[in-house]
Amino acid sequence: MRINFDEGVELLKSGDLLELGKAADEIRRKKFGDVTTFIIDRNINYTNICENECKFCAFWRKKNHRDAYVLSHDEILEKVRETVDAGGTQVMIQGGLNPDLPLSYYEEMLRKIKKNFNVTIHSFTATEILYFAQKSGLSVEETLKRLQAAGLDSLPGGGAEILVDEIRKKISPKKIMSDDWLKIMRIAHKIGMKTTATMVIGFGENFFHRVAHMKKIRDLQDETGGFRAFITWTYQPKNTALGGEKINSWDYMKTLAFTRIFFDNIEHIQGSWVTQGEKIGQLTQIFGADDLGSIMLEENVVKAAGTAFKMSTQKMINLIRDTKKIPAQRNTNYDILKTF
To answer: Cβ of 277: how many Cβ atoms within 10 Å?
Structure first.
């Protein structure tokens, strides 16, 4: 029986953490047995110059800041090379909204990567896609098709934060609003491009806002079937203009378990060791997560906000095995490449 919106708010608000975890784990077990997957990839941030100036982000810089940068294509290719040499199968390329970079910068980058490497390009948030389209005078669909033709395979779910404009206007007033994020994902799915979806919690939103966010994504998934996975992150306040405190791990785990129960139409739920650390990341496997994301050969955005956990392939394998699960390396499509 599908949980409706009101039931969802009540369950997230009043449900018992361990009962939710048990229910979520049962759903996960029926779908995936004892297997927990991960991917080897790298986050490549091509620029930190950004016009959005989001209050919750510690990564962005103004154009004239001493730390501002733009990576050359050769620098990006070297990072991709290191990823492939380390067994990586995917790169996630993301950056700030830099007014000096034309669409051709991204198209040429994608072509060069595909020419030189057999790697999946899972890159550019909906925020970036809309910005590229506006700067180039093209529609979102035209922009996505050009990037797809150049080598873009799929879109990550970044930029969603909380898909409630009341919250978005407080934390990132210059950023795209909820309808735009959903529109871009709908168009990506229409042209055959799969995506993931994310939610960032800890901005001062309430349970109503979280469930509203998830309901919008579940509804779009009913329509398109284009989301491969859902990932919940937690806001990292250090070095940001927004400030505040980190939410506790109990809140994160309860929300994670709820996402597995609520999303009856999204196959994969990812646990976050990146923002929670490896011990909580390990526990997510018994709270509904069937995937632990990437070992992340490079990550800069969360690190800029003062959170930096390290992971290696062997550490990931051990972390999964210690919970009596079977570690498996996957690709972007969630095809299992290797079990350990």
So the answer is: 13
Question: Of the candidates 240, 176, 175, which has an alpha carbon nearest to the alpha carbon of residue 202?
Answer: 240
The listed range with the strongest mean pLDDT (76-80, 278-282, 299-303) is: 76-80
Show the domain range for 202: 5-339
| Strands 268-270 and 326-330, bridge-based pairing | unpaired
Of residues 42 and 63, more confidently modeled = 42
Q: What's the pLDDT tens digit per position in 161-198?
A: 999 999 999 988 878 899 999 999 999 999 999 999 99
Burial class (CB within 10 angstroms; exposed 0-12, middle 13-18, buried 19+) of 243: exposed
Of 268, 191, 260, 199, the C-alpha closest to 224 is 191
Nearest by Cα to 62 from 275, 241, 256, 253: 241
188 vs 97: CA distance, rounded Å: 20
Top pLDDT among 3 and 305 is at 3
* Rounded mean pLDDT, 153-163: 95
Coarse DSSP helix, strand, coil percentages of the chain, rounded to the nearest 5 percent: 45, 15, 40
Tokens representing 216 are: 């919008």
Tell me the DSSP string of 222-235. HHH--EEEEEEEE-
Range list of β-strands (E), the chain:
35-39, 41-45, 90-94, 120-121, 195-201, 227-234, 268-270, 291-294, 326-330, 336-339
CATH code (residue 124): 3.20.20.70
Q: Identify the bridge partners of residue 232 per DSSP, sorted by sequence position.
A: 199
Q: What is the pLDDT of residue 58?
A: 66
Across 105-114, 167-176, 289-298, 328-337, least confident range:
289-298
pLDDT at 309 over 80: no
What is the count of structural domains for the chain?
1
